[in-house]
Amino acid sequence: NGGIITIPVVVHVIHSGQAYGVAQNITDEQVQSQITVMNNDFRRMAGTPGFNTNPVGADVMIQFALAKVDPNGNPTNGIDRVRICQDSWTTSEVNANVKPTTIWDPTQYMNMWSVKLGGSSSNILGYAQFPSNSGVIGMPAGGAANTDGVAANYRTFGSSDYGTNFALDAPYDKGRTMTHEVGHFLGLRHIWGDDSDPLVCATDYCNDTPPAHEDNYTCTLPIESCTPGLFEMVENYMDYTNDTCMNIFTLDQKARITAVMNNSPRRVEL
Ligand code: ARG
Ligand code: ZN
Ligand code: CA
Fold this sequence. Notes:
It is a single chain. The protein is α/β, with parallel strands linked by helices. It is 18% helix and 13% strand. The chain is built from 4 helices and 6 strands; from the N terminus they run βαββαβββαα. It has helices spanning 28-42, 91-102, 176-185, 251-262; strands at 5-15, 62-66, 79-83, 110-115, 126-128, 150-153. Strands 1, 2, 3, 4, 5 and 6 form a 6-stranded mixed beta sheet that branches. Strand 1 (5-15), helix 1 and strand 2 form a beta-alpha-beta unit. The protein is globular. The mean pLDDT is 95. It binds arginine (ARG), zinc ion and calcium ion (CA). Residues 124-127, 172, 176-177, 180, 240-243, 246 line the site of arginine.
């Protein structure tokens, strides 16, 4: 397989009794569109939206496939539809009440949740849990095994490029929220290093992402890095720009992910 790792994925579609394809009971096609985007982005597939020819752009050599076998050894399409009698959730409610009751063995699968985020979390597109015990420098704290994985609002899950049955949340409608969150799940930091001082460029522990002052929300202007002559890599998946702007993981980001994978916490593969 040329060193390519395929991670089996389960997508938990959390709904509150809607018919298939209505609101947060999203279709299989919408789920699959998310897997397609992650594969295009992590494998740096030519011909996909916004292909970036920057020489530091990387094929991360990780890809994703919906699981074919469930934890009991039975065939599955990798999509786990769960009805829970609560319509929307904050992220802390998801962690406390949704993830532990629905998670599949996180050493065997990457768990993804599509949920309706609401209340104090209604503006959150998605969130992730960092790896635990990776041994990789500059890794934020991970979390409990029974909350491991990535979650997104159902309106930012998947890509409108691949057909969805309702309007996704533009400009976050191309599936890059989960590309970004899976980046965290595999150990990547935000390119601005997460400090809140707009004058300081904190490190993301990757030398080929120019130091960035803070999170960016637009691609339109070149933004000077803290390093003279360099510009912030607003098109990196680990910034906060619009989905159509984002189009690169770098070689050093790939190296960081590879270090995490070699140290085993994320070594789930087919
Ligand atoms: N955790 C971030 C948030 O909720 C995700 C940002 C993803 N950005 C994007 N263009 N899809 O704001
Ligand atoms: Zn992030
Ligand atoms: Ca800063």
